[in-house]
Each structure stands twice: as C-alpha cells, then as structure tokens.
Design a protein that fits this description.
- There is one protein chain.
- The protein is mostly helical.
- 72% of the residues lie in helices and 4% in strands.
- It has 2 domains: 1-65, no CATH class; 98-265, no CATH class.
- It contains 13 helices and 2 strands; from the N terminus they run αββαααααααααααα.
- It is globular.
- Keywords: Membrane, Transmembrane, Transmembrane helix.
C-alpha cells in the first residue's frame, strides 16, 4: 500500500481507458465489445520491464498483491444487481450449480491437446481449469508455483488475462447469433470465475439484447460468484485428480513410457 508510484500509474491508466470508453464492432450478426479494462491491461503491459521499463519487478509484485482486492470491489458492484432478480436466479439455481461440471470439459479437451503439443507436467496446471486466481492458489499449495505445474497455470492465467476478454466477448456474440441458446443461459455460462471475462461476455450480450441488460448482468454475476465458491472444490475433488489420471494415460500413449511425477506432489 506504500507504493504510491503504482497507485498514480493506475489512476492515469484508468483515466485514459475510461476516456476511450467502450468500443463496439459488428461481427456478422453479433457484436464484439472492447471494454476499458482491456485498454488498461494493454497499456500496463507496455509499461513493464520488458518494454518501456516504467515499472520495475518490485512494482509488479506489489501490484500483484492487490489484484484480489480490486476484483472484490468489482464483484461487490455486481452483487448489487442480484437482489432485484433474485427470484429468477433461485429458479435457475440447479443450472448455476451444475454448470461447474463444465470444468471437466476443460480437462478432457485440454490435457490431450497439451500433451500432443509437447507439454509435460505443465499440462497439469494449464489444463485442470481456466486458471484464475483460486486455481493459482490451489496449484501453488499442492505443487508450488516454481515447478512445472506452476508454470502451466501461470501461463494460462496470463493468456486468459490478455486475450480472454476479447475471446469471451466474441464467443458470447457468436453463440447468441448462431445458436438457439437463450441469452440467460449464455450469461450464466460466462460466469467461469473470471470477473473480466464475465464482464466482456455480458457486455456483448447486453449490446445485442439491451432490454435484458439488468437480468443478464445479474445471472452473470451470480454464476461468477458460485464459480468462486464451489469451483475450487470441484477442481480439488474432481478436475485435478482427473487431470493427473488423463495426463498419465495420454503421456504413455504418446511417448510409450510412464509419466514422471512431480517433485512437489
């Protein structure tokens, strides 16, 4: 909290990003929505030691400690939208809870692809989930972030932060335009545990269905909160053990030998 340089830079980046505002582009029948959050992220990347060197490694570590607090403020804002639509959310609660089984789809698709691309133990961290903050904490606790599993989860986390908002916004528009899925179901599906990705997806849906604006935001926020609550346990009890098992099977299929075990396990 004593790093005033970070606070000043954040204030400047936010002011510039908000001045640019939301940008919308038509993509077929859908809409791609670029949010100020994305502009701030890109500008922040160029301030890093690898580019303009405005910030140092210490500044980046100090900023990283505040990510969770910042996201808590965002989720508190979304929480205020849930109250007026609470009856609809309660009716959809089974769907909101069961959607966490979608984590298993990430494993079944991601592990074979990662191994075939040549990844080793990095596959465990990269493919067990979409690798947001709770998943980083889980991998750190079990394997450690200095190991291969930690490198995998951090790699996916960074990629998700950089391109995830654009990808989710585009994906939501595509499914809303080309599939019979209801906008409410798409809003629920956007709550995967990432506030930025959920915001981008709901923003795209809101641009296409402005009359459903408040309800879409409420469904997305409620889904995201539930993902944060039970998603971690879903990963711990189901997706992570499945990832380990599938990794060993896929590794043996490709290389013909047993997979190595983690030094941290």
């Amino acid at each position: 909290m004593k790093n005033w340089k970070n606070h000043l830079l954040v204030l400047i980046l936010v002011a510039i990003a908000e001045a640019i505002g939301v940008m919308k582009f038509k993509f077929g029948p859908g809409t791609i929505v670029l949010l100020p959050m994305l502009y701030a992220l890109i500008m922040g990347i160029f301030l890093s030691p690898k580019f303009l060197k405005v910030v140092k490694e210490k500044d980046m570590k100090d900023a990283g400690a505040l990510i969770t607090i910042s996201l808590m403020l965002l989720m508190a804002r979304y929480g205020t939208m849930i109250g007026p639509t609470l009856p609809k959310i309660i009716k959809s609660s089974p769907a909101l809870i069961l959607q966490e089984l979608g984590n298993l789809g990430t494993v079944l698709l991601g592990v074979p692809v990662a191994v075939m691309l040549g990844l080793k133990r990095e596959t465990i961290g990269a493919a067990h989930s979409i690798a947001r903050e709770p998943n980083i904490a889980l991998i750190s606790d079990i394997y450690g972030l200095d190991g291969e599993e930690g490198q995998g989860v951090m790699g996916v986390y960074i990629c998700g932060t950089v391109v995830g908002t654009v990808f989710f916004g585009l994906l939501a528009s595509f499914f809303a335009a080309y599939t019979p899925l209801h906008p409410y179901s798409l809003a629920m599906a956007s709550g995967v545990g990432s506030a930025s990705m959920m915001t981008a997806a709901v923003g795209s849906l809101t641009a296409m269905f402005p009359d459903m604006k408040d309800t879409l935001a409420a469904f997305g926020a409620a889904s995201n909160m539930l993902s944060g609550l039970d998603g971690l346990y879903m990963c711990l009890w189901l997706s992570l053990p499945l990832t380990e098992w599938l990794y060993k099977k896929t590794y043996k299929f490709k290389y013909g030998v047993e997979a190595t075990t983690s030094k941290e396990a």
